[in-house]
Amino acid sequence: MKKLIFAFLSCLMLGVAAPSFASTDGPAEFVRENAKQVLDLLKKDDGKNSRKIREQLEALVLPKFDFKRMTAFAVGKNWRVATPAQQTELTAQFQTLLTRVYASTMTRYKNAQIDVKQNAVLSPGGLEATVKTDVTLPNGSDKKPISVDYTLYHTQQGWRVYNVSVEGASLVTAYRNQFDTEVRSNGVDGLIRSLREKNAKLGSGA
Amino acid sequence: MKTALRLVVLFMALALSACASVPNSPQDPLEPMNRAIYRFNDVADRNVAKPLAEGYRYITPQPVRSAVGNFFDNIRDVYSLGNNILQAEPEKALNDLMRVAINSTFGIFGLIDIATPAGLKNNKTSFGDTLAAWGWKNSSYLVIPLLGPSTVRDGTGMGLTTVLASDRPLYGNSATANVALGVNLISKRESLLGVEDTVNEAALDPYSYTRDAYLQIRNKQVGAPQTELQQEEMNIDELMGTASAPAAEVPPAAASAPAAASAPAAVLPRSDASAAH
Q1: Residue A144 in contact with partner chain B when CB distance is under 8 A
Q2: What is the number of structural domains in chain A?
Q3: In chain A, at which end, N or C, are there fewer CB atoms within 10 A of the end residue's CB?
Q4: Closest CB to A174 among B65, B190, B212
């Protein structure tokens, strides 16, 4: 038992060691572990090192998402008409955008409490899982917890998140209309261009 | 009054012009009008509502903001009670009745929410939900001036509630009622501070991002079907399997060079085709 606790603690302290556990752990543990790492990292933000913390945060969460699947999910039927090269570029741009948005949103809500529900809902094949969490924001006057659901996919490297829903609204499929409009008027390359412009603007502005 | 009438005429004209263009979302036939109101709201928010909410957060300690939020929440429970009766939900109505009874007395006029920790769930419902329960499930998106995202159904519900069952008599005189309305709105805006930054950062088009996220939540709440694009649960595995296999093997740097040459040619015929319908 002592050994187990020690192993657990050293894992937490190293942080980096945790992903090697991911392939054996269930999806709920995967989400819980990540939430803890993210919140611990955010607590180190003392106002002066914000930029560094943000970079660390982006690096921390980057390997936890399956961005390719996520991008395909957001692009929808147009994904089929995109060439493999376009798919790669779309994924790269969408990944940059989402990690940035994620990092700055988490920085804004760093005092949040995340309660990860015990049992994940597995798909019939067992390759997909939905993990439910309740997020409480101590700052808000509205004390009602916000439900945030993660959809994960089992890859060879372990569980990877590819969809996030807030109160039933998927942050990924909410992009579909915007992407579809862009593709209809300017083609897949037009969409890549506008994502690139968006990222450039965020990079210089923030 | 005259200005109000002029505004209505303007919005109607915009709404009619909406019919001429092809809406990009089937649940948003009023898009041009909604976009105009959205822009107006955005300016009003930047210049008035958001600064007020930030000021409010700055000068009040957290317990005061909680108490203010709870006070208006308690009043909303009364409306919720009425609507749960109209929806023939006796259990939920009883729950709301208990909440109001406990919070108005032991909770000192609703300033403290004792009911929630005591296990009485906060299951607010509005007249919009009642209309949905009576069968009006699908409703077009509507941006309400100063209040933001809603639907025609929920806006109708809100309007009827204000006309038929106003809470203004509760405050004694109209000056106090106006102050209460203002504080209520600022308190609501305060609880949403930060959301606008995320939306502006995340979205290519903040208007449609807000709309699509809002409609997903609202449709789910009232049990309406999701719009076609959102619903496309589209076999994600099939999507990943068909075209993506080669991309996985080619490293990104090597793949992007031929893309530049071949992509425009591949895209052009498609945009022609889509322009046709």
Answers
A1: yes
A2: 1
A3: N
A4: B212
CA distance A153 to A126: 9
Enclosing domain of residue A171? 2-205
3-state secondary structure of A140: coil
- CB contact under 8 Å between A83 and B244, yes or no, is no
Measure the CA–CA gap between A12 and B114, rounded to whole angstroms: 38
Interface size between A and B, measured as CB pairs under 8 A:
162
Contacts of A171 in chain B (CB under 8 A): 202, 213
Task: Point out the residue among B25, B122, B243 whose CB comes nearest to the CB of A79.
Answer: B243
**Amino acid letter for position B133:** A
3-state class (DSSP) for residue A80: helix
pLDDT in tens, chain A (206 residues): 555 555 555 544 444 444 444 445 788 888 888 888 888 888 888 777 888 888 888 888 888 899 999 999 899 888 988 999 999 999 999 999 998 888 888 888 878 888 888 888 888 777 888 999 988 877 555 567 888 999 998 888 888 998 999 888 888 888 988 999 899 999 999 999 999 999 998 887 65
Residue A20 maps to which CATH number?
3.10.450.710
Q: How far does A2 lie from chain B, in Å, by closest CA?
A: 37
- Report the distance separating Cα B180 and Cα B173, nearest Å: 11
Q: Which of A177, A179, A197 to mutate to test the interface with B (most CBs of B within 10 A)?
A: A177
Using CB atoms, pick whichever of A79, A92, A108 lies closest to residue B197.
A108
Q: Determine the Cα–Cα distance for residues A137 and A150; give it in Å rounded to an integer.
A: 18
Closest listed residue to residue A131, CA positions, set A27, A35, A22: A27
**Nearest CA distance, A156 vs chain B (angstrom):** 14
Please tell me the number of Cα atoms within 13 Å of A147 on its side-chain side.
Answer: 10
Both tokens assigned to A105:
């949103």
Q: Do A181 and B205 touch (CB under 8 A)?
A: yes
Task: Assess contact for B145 and B168: CB atoms under 8 A.
Answer: no
What does the angle CA A186 – CA A190 – CA A191 come to, to the nearest 5 degrees?
Answer: 115
